[in-house]
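Data availability (excerpt). The following record was deposited with the supplementary files.
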Amino acid sequence: MALLGSFFVGAFVASMIVESSFFGRTANAYGVALLGEGALLVAFMALSRVAFISAAMGMQNSLVTRVSGAVVRTTHLTGVFTDLGIEGARWFRRWRADVAARLGIPLTFGRSTVERPATAKVLLLSTIAAMFVLGAIFGAFAVVKVSRAAIVVPSAAVFACAAYAFVTARRP
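Predicted structure:
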């Protein structure tokens, strides 16, 4: 239960930062939130408290959800595969409708609406799923080899994203 609370606090804090006008431009707010997430990753590495990594995950999920307009949640692999399944069904219905039109025979019973599949969304979700798998493999090997120091690479990536957000905020 404590880990869920930590996740919630991370998501809450990230959303409060992004929704605040205190930091000026939105990119600055994202930069501040990313700095907080990076600090939580470093705190986990230094203190080995799982609550820190859980809060960092909540911040990550909140930030990506905000940036993507609630299309993506990076900590929910089941949701990614659910969305891929939905898009797969759209591709199948479209293919079935094309085949039915060419053959001149109905391949469905009743009305079947055909929605255009979202290719960009499928590519995004597939990339997220692939990165989950690669991250799990790399992370498992890294933890075996270097223990908590494996967090150095993701921490550096988060801090680099924060720097990018601050640089972007300065552009007109």
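Summary of structural features: The first helix runs from residue 2 to 19.
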